[in-house]
Request: fold
Amino acid sequence: MNPLRILLVDDEALARQRLRDLLARHSCIQICGESSTATAAIEQIETRSPDVLFLDVQMPDGSGFDVLRAVGPDSVPVVVFTTAYDQYALQAFEAHALDYLLKPFSDQRFEEALSRACRMLTLSRERNLVERLEALLEDAPKSDHRLVVRSSGRVNYLDPSEIEWVEAEGNYVLLHTARESHLHRETMTSIESRLPPGKFLRIHRSSIVQLALVREVLRSREGDHDVRLASGKKLRVSPRHRQALLDALGE
Reply:
């Protein structure tokens, strides 16, 4: 894993030394730069691309907020303000700062802020990885019909032929295969549009089946219909979708 790149911005040399001493306890940390002015901070953010910015509020040539405005929201790293003035806390959080360390802060309080920054970066990198993987799959040859599915913190590639049936689960769907089930954040309508047409069919507002794995259509005396799948799973067919199912199966 790449080290966490940190930029220290404070006009007091002793304050920067204090941060260096605290960060030296962590082998996964790399201090990629220091600055004592807002102007130098802006330049270093743009040239060194830090992951985390420990940022003072008041400096000789401007404020920490001036730095964030100059860099712009697309280039601002994770920000932890460090200041002796508590009156800027609300403004700091309005500027989307992750934390606000009020000097003099304890070692424990610093560690809490650093831990929060690490967690945010981990989540951000995971999201970016998923987005890149999804983009790669979108650009893949159209003969590759695999689905990108985010489940339990992993990215899975599913061939639709592996999916026996799909179940609605609130704002998620459960994709059931012969081996396991994948809980994936997507609507039924959306996942239905991504499955190969003619091979999958909606049989209920909360279920979609792979037609090739339907082994039996069961009719009750009351006129209700169920299907039994290859795995033995039995699912209810709603009256609304009954005729489409029978037509698809040639019954």
Q: What stands out?
A: The domain at 4-134 is CATH 3.40.50.2300 (Rossmann fold). The chain has seven helices and 17 strands. The CA atoms of residues 116 and 186 lie 28 Å apart.
